[in-house]
Specification:
single chain, alpha/beta, Rossmann fold, 2 domains, 3-stranded parallel beta sheet, 3 helices
Length: 110
Amino acid sequence: MLSTVEFEIMGKHPPLVSNIARGPIIDTAALVTALHNGNVKAAALDVTDPEPLNEDSELWDMPNVVITPHISGGSTDYTKRAFAVLEANLYRIENWEKGFINEISRHKGY
């Protein structure tokens, strides 16, 4: 989902990129390049590709990168939020409503 083209577009207003979903969502090599050339200001990564991240990855030593050990889902409210989403989606199925509340749409960009 995020690679060279997307990082170049974002470079007009360099963002903080955060990934708490799945490592392959971000092209790691493209992210490193974008961090070096300023298209991305900083990165916060709870997941990486590969995972675990190679010991020799440049990301470990970059001052504008924070890497956590895949723990972002461990909040005290995670289970409550996950079941609320499940409950809402089951309600939608039961009532023949279209689409889930957390459905991915590449057309919409998320």
